[in-house]
Design brief:
One of its GO terms (biological process) is methylation. One of its GO terms (molecular function) is O-methyltransferase activity. The protein has eight helices and seven strands. The chain has a seven-stranded mixed β-sheet with strand order 3-2-1-4-5-7-6, with helices on both faces. Helix content is 41%, strand content 21%. Helix 7 links the parallel strand 4 and strand 5. By secondary structure, the protein is an alpha/beta fold. It has a single domain, classed as Rossmann fold, CATH 3.40.50. The structure holds S-adenosylmethionine (SAM). The site of S-adenosylmethionine has 20 residues, from helix 4 and strand 2.
Length: 213
Amino acid sequence: MPKFTLVPPEIEAYADAHTTAPAPLFDELRDVTYARMSSPNMQVGSVEGTFLRMLVALTGARRVLEIGTFTGYSALMMAEALPDDGALITCDIDPEATDVARAFFLRSPHGRKIDLRMGPALDTLKTLQGPFDLAFIDADKPSYAAYWDAVLPLLRPGGLIIADNVLWSGRVLQPEGPSDHAIVDFNAKVAADPRVEHVLLTVRDGMMLARKR
Ligand SMILES: C[S@@+](CC[C@H](N)C(=O)[O-])C[C@H]1O[C@@H](n2cnc3c(N)ncnc32)[C@H](O)[C@@H]1O
């Protein structure tokens, strides 16, 4: 199973210990995810989750789009920073993981801001109307380039796209499998796109932040 982090575990633990502690519900969500899911480390975790929440707060986002709900950690984190009338649409295809997400959304006062759409994200994206203020791409890697093409037009000028796992446990340096190449191609695509300014951060497994001009 990929580690989904390039940061040594003791450094990750130190960063975690010096990051605002998430509400206890997030600890429970982490524990349930690790007990029930076969790839629990897909969950963004507290450092990246808190960073996402901070980005939503700093950008003043009111409408957020997420591709890749899993058990709901990142969605719930970002929803916490939305205003009362804010909204987050999140997409997934996995009924088992999203059953967990739904149960936790119901237990949070911020869960009512979240609209979970089941089905392949590329189909869901065709049904959505912009503008969104912020989008978080964190689903199947071979579709990243297609998600970029579909999401950027839905984003308002000045809006932010965040893509996760763009260092792919370091395999971007020696790509072999289809997902490795998909991430390499995605990063090159973003870097060549004049519609955005972008920065690739070495947070956890790599986060691409791209601001629409
Ligand atoms: C890395 S996980 C998301 C983790 C989540 N952001 C979190 O913090 O817990 C990726 C998710 O993408 C979903 N996914 C994979 N292919 C998809 C597709 N074609 N459309 C929508 N979701 C998809 C998977 O079911 C999985 O739950």
